[in-house]
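Q: Can someone sanity-check these two? First one:
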Amino acid sequence: MAKVLPFKGIRYNLEKVKNISDVITPPYDVIDDKAQKNYYKKNPYNSIRLELGYQFPDDSENENRYTRAACHFRKWLEEGVLIREAMDALYLYEQQFSINTTDYTRTGFFARVKLEDFTTGRILPHEETLLKPKADRLALMSECVANFSPIFVFYVDEEMTLDQEYEKVKEAQAEIGLTDAMGEQHRVWVMTDPKLNEKITSTLENQVLYIADGHHRYETALEFYRQNRDQYPACSSILIYLVNACDPGMVVLPTHRVVHSLPDLDLIGFRNKLEEYFYVEKIDSQEKDLSSLLKKQQDAGKTAFIMGTREPALYLVVLRDNSHVQDSSPEKSLAWCSLDASVLQTLIFQKILDMSPEKIADQEHITYTREDAVALNTLNHDAQLVFLLNPTKISEIIKVASAGDKMPQKSTYFYPKLLTGLVFNDLKC
């Protein structure tokens, strides 16, 4: 079903860029102003100039962050700072990382993948998108006619068909190797063997691909293709990172909710309404392993949250009956209604706290964080309520996507992020 293709990627010339760490970045959407400045300072060829250039007050239609990115891209190619692969290739990408003292390795590869409209069922989303980020990425793509950062997708192969092939490739020295600022190790091997690449691509022919990260860029690529397919036929395929959902390094982290700035929040009244839908049990505020407490509930098939209040107090909040979510969202699938994030949004944020979907989307009263301690610490400042969640399971993502639904925002956080700058994709050829 999915058309996966080797391609002549564009990479940094390691004879001219001696230290690859100086030119790579995380994805553009996790880079704040301070980090942007630091990447600019690191190296004049840092990929930040392509992916997230500076904006200036006097920018115009003809001179702006997107035109400057295109200029850098062309110049670096002319100077030989960037070079094109001599042969069609797939790019094996290994990330080694740790979470809470547990070590993980995730292995996937970069390829071109033929764009598919979501209606074909061959590539499926699980997340809603916003107009502003898509407009930004379309402007960049239109000027540069290239993909600088890959879209992250996964497929399901319980047999782990390609693992042995990957291990053989890893016996050779990697073309790219680096340790990032987080201490995570990244290695890339360039795979040019036609027989190996044919085996990899043919293995994926009958696979459905699920977008893990990069929904905005994928929809942008679809729009760019609609506008430019006659001029740039190659833009029918885009840069994608593919990984098996069964890979032991496929990690999804939770994203916690912090509620703030609600006018006239009555905690006693809120608690009373909450108990109409949930069992609410006060827990020891000194409880250290809140994530294990939540996972125990998840393993038992229950939807549960840890709620923090300003009292200060912590509560275990467990859903009584999922039928209330289904009644409130009859247009949604059972898979969607069973999500922790859906339950929280539907019953607590919308029904009890009376937040409109628009206010939730605009993050008017909600902020998000991955760290338990960071979330709970906000109660000492501006937060009124904090909700700690279990991470969404990959099986849940598959069920929701297959049902044609989109999860509430910030339902998934695949970790670690993919680096930008390892390989680029030219959409002109």
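And here is the second, same format, sequence then tokens:
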Amino acid sequence: MFKRIIFPLFLLFPLAIFSQTIQLDSCQKKAREHYPLLKRYDLIAKTAEYTLSNANKAYLPQFSILAKATYQSDVTAIPEALGQVLSQLSGQPFSLPALSKDQYQAVVEVDQLVWDGGMVNAQKEAVKASSEAEKQKLEVDLYALKERVNNLYFGIMLIKEQLKLNRILQDELANNYNRMEAYLKNGVVQSSDLDAVKVEQINAMQSETDLRSTLKSYCQMLSIFTGMKVDENTALEKPLLPVFEGNLENRRPELSLLDAQKNLLESQRKTILAGNLPKIGLFVQGGYGRPGLNFFDNRFTPFYIAGVRLSWNFGGLYTQKNDLAKIDINRKEVETQKETFLFNNSLLTTQQQNEIDKLTETMKNDDAIIALRSNIKKAAESKLENGVIVVSDLLREINAENLARQTRSLHEIQLYMAAYQLKNTINN
């Protein structure tokens, strides 16, 4: 007895798994998280972090070591005539030790940047602006996933609704087939009428097969995008229909990308200007060699030099005007792209809003059409029973009612798709 109880419960367990319900928002979120391109966020952030770290190190003391050994064909010496004059003036013989033609020197230098014209800050701003532009470009690519997920989600909803209507149609045809069999026994219809109904049943079953094949394909694609298990048994929750009121503010990531590109161009302009300014730094040199700072001392001696260094490269000034002009052209190009995007987006928004209005008005008449078609079908069934019409007339009315129901479902899904397309167009 115990085993008989446990076994049915075990069979019911998979049903709980298969009856899971998913939402559109969760599908969009999972698709974003599952998309391989998302990994670039960390790569962009790490690259910017390392580059900024390198830029900050420009203000750290810079060490350099120089060592050399040379042999000279000649060395510095006092002219003989000058030596005689100095001997006469001093009253003593004057002489200097001869310098060696082989000379040696090792120098350690420490440089400390004091002012660079704002070059390091400009480079840091350029790194941040470039990183932000890369992130916004990535955001644009990821945003495109929403529309693809929406199309799959609503496509599955539409197919499921069509399958539901197909089942209703098959049940309707089965009932009429059974009724025709009774009519055949009473001589109201002929056997060919039964064949006509059978043909419609086969057509309905073929449509079901096609719909299930398409549904399987859509579910597989949504599973790949989201990383979730989605199959025919997965229930899709119908999302709330977006309501748009007043002025529709555009929040598309493309606009953020264009703004980021403008900021990048501005940082490049600052970098050009800062690169053509003078640089001031402190330096200390410590060395050991023969000779040292005293050229007339032929011994190995230590020495040091400390001071302030000013450097100014004027070469960049020759091209600064043209470089800034190119930056300005690129900025105007970005502004033109923004204007073009907003213009096209506005046209698309108007078109989609009109589509929503049209479908809303259309759906108001769908229920009335279904009710009328249902009455006409019932009247046709009564007429057939009384021998007023033939079976083909009844089948035509059955198909007309089914088509009206399908049209209503199609219009409803189209309304949802149009609303979410508009939502996606303006990112509102």
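A (reply): Looked at the second one. The chain has one domain: 23-53+109-277+312-426. The two ends are 60 Å apart (CA to CA).
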